[in-house]
Specification:
alpha+beta; about 25% helix
Length: about 80
């Protein structure tokens, strides 16, 4: 799994970032929203269309997406500081 695009969310948006991922070679999912719950855990939600979510992630995959996102945000912060 790798992050192929990372966009930090606006402060107060309820999300920490929106990411584009490549869970396996040749498969890409764009616009995954990563947020932090009140208990401190992370959640990852697939993009939505008029019928609802277009994909879902189990806890392990969501955690992996969140870890990669947090690492990417930290790296971006270091580069812009």
């Amino acid at each position: 799994m790798k992050i192929i695009g990372l966009r930090p969310a606006r402060p107060g948006a309820g999300a920490i970032a929106h990411v584009d991922i490549e869970p396996s070679p040749g498969v890409r999912i764009y616009g995954v929203r990563v947020s932090r719950s009140d208990d401190g855990s992370f959640r990852a939600f697939g993009p939505e269309n008029e019928r609802g979510r277009t994909c879902a992630f189990d806890r392990d995959v969501a955690n992996q997406i969140a870890q990669l996102t947090v690492a990417g945000l930290s790296q971006n912060e270091r580069l812009t500081s």
